[in-house]
Amino acid sequence: MFQGKIQPRDLRVETVRAEDYKTVIVDGVFGGSRSGLFEMICYTDEMCADEALASVIPDSSKVYIRRTLQCRLVLTPMQAKGLLNWLTQTLNQYEKQFGKIPEVQKRKEERRSFLV
């Protein structure tokens, strides 16, 4: 019979990657919240210029952006708060080392995609 509490340091955790595990360089996030959960869809944008470059004189009107929905993340409020805390701490450390990151509103003017 087990007596006492299990301490986190005493618990062994085995880490494995899912078969479909992948790295995604996110261009944007779209989502929101509803009762009991937060959800966000991560997407990537790719400039497609094959048609534009298919002629001797490239036609820029044939360039388009292909937006690919990569994954949907669903978080409980507690997980969302934990993610916010981790991001805040990590961003603060990053800015100490590399300098201030421009605000999202400023970046909207510079890029086609942005984080929502």
SSE layout and pairings?
Blueprint: E1 28-34, E2 37-48, E3 64-75, H1 77-98, H2 104-110
Antiparallel strand pairs: 1-2, 2-3
Quick rundown:
The chain has 116 residues and is an alpha+beta fold.
Description:
With 116 residues, the protein is of the alpha+beta class. It has one domain (24-110). The chain has two helices and three strands. The chain has a three-stranded antiparallel sheet. Strand 1 and strand 2 form a beta hairpin. The longest helix is centred in the C-terminal third of the chain and has 22 residues, at 77-98. The model has no long low-confidence stretch (mean pLDDT 88).
* Number of DSSP E strands: 3
Count of discrete alpha- or pi-helical segments spanning 4 or more residues: 2
| Overall pLDDT level | 88
Q: Kindly state the percentage of residues in helix.
A: 25-40%
Q: Label the overall shape.
A: elongated
Sheet with the most strands? 3 strands, antiparallel
* Beginning-to-end CA distance, first to last residue: 51 Å
Features of this protein?
116 residues, alpha+beta
